[in-house]
Amino acid sequence: MRIFQGWLAGGRVRAAKKRLAENPTARRYAELAQEHALLKDLDRALKVVEEGITAFPADADLRRMSGMFRQLGLEDRTRALARELETAPRPALWREMCEMLLEAGRLARAEDAAAQWFQTTQEGEAQYYRARARAERFFADRRRDDGRLAYELADAAEKLMEGDPRALDLRAQIAARAGAWGEARRDLSRLLEINPGDQALEARFRMAVAMFDGPKTIDQAFREVERSGRLADEPRDRDPKAPVVDSAESEAPVVAPARARPLLQQIARIPGIQAAFYLRGATALVQGPKGPTAERTARTVREILTVSRSAARRLGLGHAAEIRIEGDHGTLLMLPGELGSGALWIGGEVTRRHEEAVRDLSIAASSDEVAA
Amino acid sequence: MRALLEPLATVPGVQIAMLVSEDGVPIVVRGEARQESGGESVDDAEVLAGLTASWIADVCRAIAPISWNTPRHLVLRASRGTLIAMQAPRALLVVVIGRGVQAGELRLPMESAIARMEREIRVGNQRASGQTPAEADESTQPTGIFPARQAPAPTVAARVEPAKNRNSEPYGPSGE
Fold first, then answer.
1. Is the confidence at residue A257, as pLDDT, over 70?
2. What is the ipTM for the molecules in this complex?
3. Across the interface, do A141 and B41 touch by the CB < 8 Å criterion?
4. What are φ and ψ of residue A284, in 5° steps?
5. C-alpha distances in angstroms, B45 versus A58, A99, B54, B107?
6. 8 Å CB contact between B86 and B110
7. Cβ separation of B51 and A315 shorter than 8 Å?
8. Which long-range contacts (C-beta less than 8 Å, at least 24 apart) are formed by A60-68?
């Protein structure tokens, strides 16, 4: 029966390959990958999807399939490792497990695995992986408790791992990203003693020296990160409490990428769009509503972005990537970026064109190109 | 209520599905309470419910100056998962999904869950007001493909079936 099924599936794969060769489209790539996946050949399915992504980089379905196949492959390897760890646990397997989970962003599981490893062996490396997992959570969620625990774990790991600079490096990284430049400088100077002449380390040390602006305890730094929601090495808004709202038709000079205005005007012409917003630092460009309405709406969009970013962090979901609010008013679609954000108020149904437009707006808001 | 959320919780990729009161108290929780990467902040469904209600309250406060009504459907997509909230009768339906799952895939199951909930509430209200379960069920069922056309109430005359030998047909001055 299994042979018969394999023969049938092989025929479907051959047919899918033939169709793809005749007319290579994103859908045909997806179909072939699906056939390979049905045969449980995930490696080949992933290869086909990656080939498809190279040919059709904008195709969302292929990207989604790539993520799914990677996830499935990871699950398989994790299960195999867990089985092996039950029978013959050894540091190499624990290390691979932790690395793989960290790479996949499965931070809670990575920390659990490292904790289990530490419980059985009391090794410093296990403590280091616990610290890394917790530090990643701190970088994503900016919670003070995560930062404090990551720092303590890195400290403990550093004491246990004699001659291994990884824990010290991690501690320096946590301190620098939190803004405790004094602590970071101390750790980096010790790292430079271990690795003299390392240019990357020297650059980090120079930065820590340049950024030092008075004594600040690590706890104060963590509290500041939690309050502001920003790490010390991230760009800061000029004055987020005083937004300058500028209707795109006005002539007032604003600091914004040069292509923001024409892009806003172009986007506002797409059917269904009631308003388009470009938000960066204290600047807000609005296309659609005018006067006080534009100002009020831009303030609203900015406030929703702020509360949503904070909510995503507090909920443990990481960085907010998209916010969608639907109601009687239509849909408010927002894409927050590192430097700025784009938003659209859409009257009817949200189409793919709208999604692409808001993505363009968000990219423009996050670009470094600035108008003269 | 648990049965209402069961189909939602079994959708692939759904980590947790819960019904939350407007002030952030979980009413029903289905699925894994522990999120993969969220740590202790969402281990507890109560925390998740409270934070979600607080986020929605913040959003409502933000949109008040531009006179928009309370949003019906909210999606917060983030790097490690997506939170979807939908207004249900006097509550919020909250679902957390993992990465790789599209929020749009959950729209129909969530709307169905809310529709079932509304129907349950209607039936409950009608039972409370003294209608028999059968009557209550009838009134909540769809009226057919032409809802505007009301079926006439069956009368005694309508129930008289004509006999095959026409003996029972009316006759006389008006029936001739």
1. no
2. 0.71
3. yes
4. -135, 125
5. 37, 29, 14, 22
6. yes
7. yes
8. A61/A26, A61/A27, A61/A30, A62/A26, A62/A29, A62/A30, A62/A33, A64/B100, A64/B102, A65/A30, A65/A33, A65/A34, A67/B99, A67/B100, A68/B100
Closest partner residue to B77 (CB to CB) among A111, A137, A321 is A321
Cβ proximity of B5 and B17 under 8 Å: yes
If phi > 0 it is left, if psi is from -120 to 50 it is alpha, else beta; for residue A64 that is alpha
Which amino acid would we find at residue B55?
W
Amino acid A287 reads Q
Whether B99 contacts chain A with CB within 8 A? yes
* Residue A54 vs residues A24, A74, A97, B33, B39: alpha-carbon distances, Å: 12, 22, 30, 38, 36
Task: Kindly report, residue by residue over A156-184, the tens digit of the pLDDT.
Answer: 999 998 888 999 999 999 999 999 999 99
DSSP 3-state of A245 = strand
Q: Is A137's CB within 8 Å of B77's CB? A: no
Distance CA B30, CA B95 (A): 10
Residue whose tokens read 């987020």: A240
Q: Under 8 Å CB-to-CB from B71, ≥6 apart: which residues?
A: A325, A326, A327, B56, B59, B60, B63, B87
pLDDT at B156 over 90: no
- To test the contact with chain A by mutation, choose from B75, B76, B82 the residue with the greatest count of A C-beta atoms within 10 A, namely B76
Residue type, A366: S
**B77, A355 in Cβ contact below 8 A?**
no
